[in-house]
Each structure stands twice: as C-alpha cells, then as structure tokens.
Specification:
- The structure holds 2 protein chains of 2 kinds.
- By secondary structure, chain A is mainly α.
- Chain A is built from 10 helices and no strands.
- The longest helix of chain A has 27 residues, at 123-149.
- By secondary structure, chain B is α+β, with helices and mostly antiparallel strands.
- Chain B has one domain: TusA-like domain (Translation Initiation Factor IF3, 2-Layer Sandwich), CATH 3.30.110.
- A 4-stranded mixed β-sheet of chain B has the order 1-2-4-3, with helices on one face.
- Chain B is globular, with a radius of gyration of 11 Å.
- Chain B starts with a strand and ends with a strand.
- Classes of the chains: A mainly alpha, B alpha+beta.
- Chain A binds chain B through residues 74, 77-78, 81-83, 85, 134-135, 138-139, 142, and chain B through 11-15, 17-18, 21, 45, 48-49, 52-53.
C-alpha cells in the first residue's frame, strides 16, 4: 500500500495550484457557478487561504490571464517592438496572431473562459479579458494609423480596421476549436496566422483592393 | 537642453514606449522628454527601455494613477 504524505507547499506553489484549479473549475462550470469554497476544496485548503492569496475575484482573474501566458507572451512581442528599431509590422502581427491561435488550439480552457465571461456577462471576467484584447487592438490601430500617415495604408478609421482584424482572428480561433469541418485545422497556427495577417494587410494597402 | 512633453494618458503598453521611442529619435543628445502615462505597465517598461537603449531615466514619479517619467537622450 502506498503511503501518502501530504506535501508541504510553499506560498508560491500554493498560489500556482489555486490558479490552476480555478482555471479547471471556471472552464468546466463557468465563473458564476464556481465558489471560492469549490476552489479551496479542489486545492485541499481553506477558503481563508484562497482569500489570503487572492483577496478579490479580480485578483484571481488577473492571475489566470497571467497563467495563460497572455501577458507574458505580449511582453515578448514588446521586446521586439522596443528594441528592434526597424521591426517588421507583418512579423509582429503574425507572432501575435499565431500566439492567439496556438493558445486556443492547445488550451481549450482559454476559449471556454472567454465564452463563459461573455455568456454570463460577468463584468469582472469580461472586463479583464476585454482589457487584454484592447491592448492588442490598440496596438494594431496604432500601426494602421502610422501606415496611413506614411501612405502605406488606405484612409479610414484605424480603430475599425483593428477591431475587424482582431474579430476575424478570434472568429478563426473559435472555428478551429468548434467546427467539425477539418479544413479549419489543416493549417498550423503559424500558417493560419500568416494568411490572416497577409489578407488583412492586403485589404488595407493603399494600392490594394483593386480587382484586375 | 530642451524638454518635450509627451502625453500618453489613456494609452496601453506598448503604445507609450513606441511613442517615446519615436520621440527620442527626433531630439538631440541631452534633450529630455517628459512622458506622462496612466498604464502601470509603463513603470517597468520605461526603466527597461532606457537601460536597453542607452538613454537615461532622470526622474520617475507617481501621482495617483498618473505616472511621469523624464528621460534624457543618451547617457548622462
């Protein structure tokens, strides 16, 4: 018979465990149906200890987004933007897009969390997710506006272009996850991202859009 | 020595740094840029950016949700 010994976790390990179990529960049953008590039970700890690590639900949502690599990855993209003076916009957009597709392909919990946040109209979860997305949309709008100033892109509302870009990308990630048509998943995230970005850039190119 | 003001209130990172990077390119060595930002992410980003790009963060202060950074072009 195996003798089970209760491992003593460090504060960092316990915090990480709480986040992992919260992701599991939120993705399985939604934000509303999940109580702190459920998370504590799954972790094998007390409600008080969960509150000690995450005083508010917002703190927990924040940690979940961090855990899902959202911000961490964006930091990698920021490195490229900040320290490569002549960075290639298409390359940056492809990296961002490939990340989102990889995220939803490999971590179904991520998409479920987004959908639960929308369906339940949970202001905290939806707000945080939108805030994160908005960061990406604002960045795309900035590049579009810069491209318009230099004559590279056609005139128009850069914010509308950026939201269309992001909505199309999120729609693609949903279809890759839920559609039964296998053709949605034929391309790797990187290839699908490259096609999405190229189509977008061609559509807003100053000299593009005309039919031969 | 000139100081240029750059108000990036309401902009999320990476935009304040992208604007700062662009602004620093258009001033002379020793000139300063006073950047105002509201995204808390700017705190670590401005410091790291200055270190990595050979510019100098002269001053950094916070007033409620408003962050002010004074950056000088080049090493001081």
């Amino acid at each position: 018979m195996t003798k089970h010994r209760r491992q003593k976790l460090s504060a960092v390990e316990r915090r990480s465990l709480i986040v992992h179990k919260a992701i599991e529960l939120f993705a399985q049953q939604g934000f509303r149906a999940t109580r702190v008590k459920d998370i504590a039970e799954r972790v094998g700890t007390s409600d008080a200890l969960v509150f000690q690590h995450f005083p508010t639900k917002r703190d927990l949502y924040d940690a979940i987004l961090d855990e899902l690599c959202a911000r961490r990855h964006f930091t990698e993209v920021e490195q490229l933007l900040y320290y490569t003076p002549e960075y290639d916009v298409e390359d940056v957009l492809q990296r961002l897009s490939a990340w989102l597709l990889e995220q939803t392909d490999t971590e179904p919990a991520w998409l479920r969390l987004i959908l639960y946040a929308a369906l339940e109209q949970d202001d905290g979860a939806a707000g945080l997710i939108e805030e994160h997305f908005q960061r990406i949309i604002d960045y795309v709008a900035y590049e579009v506006a810069e491209g318009q100033r230099s004559g590279k892109f056609k005139p128009g509302d850069a914010g509308v272009y950026a939201r269309d870009f992001f909505s199309g990308l999120l729609g693609l990630s949903v279809m890759r996850t839920v559609a039964r048509d296998q053709r949605y998943r034929l391309d790797s995230p990187r290839t699908a991202a490259a096609v999405h970005v190229a189509t977008f850039l061609r559509g807003i190119a100053a000299s593009g859009g005309e039919r031969n | 020595m000139n100081t240029t003001s750059l108000d990036c209130s309401g902009l999320n990172c990476p935009l304040p740094i992208l604007r700062l990077s662009k602004a620093i390119g258009s001033v002379k060595t020793g000139d300063r840029i006073e950047l105002i930002a509201t995204d808390p992410g700017a705190i670590k980003d401005v410091q790291a950016w200055a270190n990595q790009t050979g510019n100098t963060l002269i001053e950094s202060r916070q007033d409620a949700q408003r962050y002010t950074f004074v950056v000088a072009k080049g090493h001081q």
